[in-house]
């Protein structure tokens, strides 16, 4: 039996509807709070991702600086033969660095995508639970309204 909906001679249909409206409002507030907590949890999860984005970016920046530095070092050679020899030698090292950058970036991207997918999945499941709780609260409020109206009708008869 619904709390606050006990039949009494003073109970009216308006009282039933007032209680129903209040319970619906409470369900809406609870739903909003639950969704807010889902968002907070998701945002906190993003902060604690497994991929150290700053470290990955730093490694890429260091690698790209090394590649540029390796190319600039050859600028001191005025002789074409020596210049192209320098570019050739440094080009091999740059290729290794770029391959490593590509591997690390691809790996970080894949792991980060997995992390983001997990956060998104967790948020969806949390929000589904919040929706389910909301719908159950609304159904309960409606059932109590129906029961209250029936009891008011019985008291009137």
Counting DSSP E segments of at least 2 residues, the number of strands comes to: 0
What is the end-to-end distance? 20 Å
Overall residue-averaged pLDDT value: 90
- Put simply, the count of helices is 3
Low-confidence stretches: none
Structural class: mainly alpha
**Rg of Cα set:** 33 Å
Q: What form results from the Cα inertia axes?
A: rod-shaped
For the sheet with most strands, the description reads: none
What level of helicity do the residues show? over 70%
> What is the element string, with H for helices and E for strands?
HHH
Strand portion: under 5%
Provide a descriptive summary of the structure in words:
The protein is mainly α. The protein contains 3 helices and no strands. Helix 1 (13-47) packs antiparallel against helix 3 (80-156) and helix 2 (53-72) packs antiparallel against helix 3 (80-156).
Describe the structure concisely:
84% of the residues lie in helices and 0% in strands. It has helices at residues 13-47, 53-72, 80-156. The radius of gyration is 33 Å and the shape is rod-shaped.
Question: What attributes characterize this protein structure?
Answer:
3 helices, mainly alpha, about 160 residues
What's the structural blueprint in terms of helices and strands?
Elements: H1 13-47, H2 53-72, H3 80-156
Helix pairs in contact: 1-3, 2-3
